[in-house]
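User: Reviewer 2 asked us to show a designed sequence for the structure in our supplementary figure. I'm pasting the structure tokens here. Could you produce the per-position amino acids so we can include them in the response letter?
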């Protein structure tokens, strides 16, 4: 069962995959295929898992889905493909069915996986209210702080029982200065020298030393730190993007955010003699991969 939890919701996990889980239903809907329960059960377990994985993907591989279900007996029936629910509008029916204490904001809705939004629409019926509320608690309920013990005291989380896996995170920082200042440091450099070069090295060093700056962070074996600078279409705006990777037992989100933050501070230090009121922020986690919760990406909303 170790490979199933990221793909199945808690209320539908079964050992034999006898029933169509929501991920498989989404794959079929987007591929325009209607498959009977007998047809689903005629597929090999590996084929059923492939459909589940396809349906859990942000972009469903429609051609692959159709090729898999073509092996079912009885075969599937072609139907009109059903697209995913919109990302920019929470289904109105949900507010009445979720009940008190379960508020699904537009920002939270947009941050969900495509599979999660599909599941909310599929379960948005009075007879499925219990499953719908369980889905909300699984996807949207704010978990208790992990860095606090049962007495509410700060602690460092133990990760020894976890297996090392590939972890990746991307963070960004926005730096706003006068357009003339940005033009000068881009073309001629700053009074202290290569502003971007120094800020890049500072960001890399900051990511590597995150555990010395953030008290409860673990010391990780980073395998990659990349810091780059993007000139925004907005006059005088630089976007710093820090990407961090590691093969370790916990995530590298803090390392990526620290790298972006330190790079922004170093850039300010390089140009403060030219302009004092440079603005830094926001500093954002853009995406992360790996770990128990799987991939996450910031919504554009």
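Assistant: Here is a per-position design you can include in the supplement:
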């Amino acid at each position: 069962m170790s490979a199933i939890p990221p793909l199945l919701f808690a209320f539908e996990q079964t050992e034999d995959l006898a029933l169509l889980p929501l991920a498989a239903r989404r794959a079929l809907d987007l591929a325009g295929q209607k498959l009977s329960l007998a047809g689903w059960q005629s597929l090999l377990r590996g084929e059923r898992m492939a459909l589940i994985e396809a349906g859990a993907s942000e972009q469903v591989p429609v051609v692959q889905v159709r090729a898999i279900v073509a092996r079912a007996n009885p075969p599937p029936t072609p139907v009109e493909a059903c697209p995913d629910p919109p990302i920019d509008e929470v289904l109105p029916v949900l507010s009445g069915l979720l009940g008190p204490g379960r508020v699904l904001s537009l920002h939270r809705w947009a941050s969900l996986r495509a599979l999660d939004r599909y599941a909310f629409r599929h379960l948005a019926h009075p007879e499925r209210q219990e499953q719908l509320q369980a889905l909300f608690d699984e996807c949207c309920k704010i978990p208790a702080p992990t860095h606090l013990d049962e007495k509410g005291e700060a602690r460092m989380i133990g990760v020894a029982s976890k297996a090392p896996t590939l972890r990746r995170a991307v963070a960004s920082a926005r730096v706003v200065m006068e357009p003339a200042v940005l033009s000068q440091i881009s073309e001629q450099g700053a009074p202290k020298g290569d502003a971007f070069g120094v800020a890049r090295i500072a960001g890399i060093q900051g990511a590597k030393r995150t555990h010395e700056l953030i008290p409860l962070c673990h010391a990780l074996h980073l395998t990659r730190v990349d810091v780059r600078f993007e000139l925004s279409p907005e006059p005088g705006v630089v976007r710093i993007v820090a990407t961090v990777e590691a093969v370790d037992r916990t995530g590298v989100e803090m390392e990526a955010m620290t790298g972006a933050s330190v790079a922004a501070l170093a850039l300010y230090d390089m140009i403060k003699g030219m302009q004092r009121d440079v603005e830094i922020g926001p500093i954002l986690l853009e995406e992360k991969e790996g770990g128990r919760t799987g991939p996450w990406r910031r919504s554009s909303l």
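For the response letter, you might also mention the following. Strands lie at 33-34, 77-78, 165-176, 222-231, 237-248, 279-289, 296-297. The CA atoms of residues 9 and 135 lie 7 Å apart.
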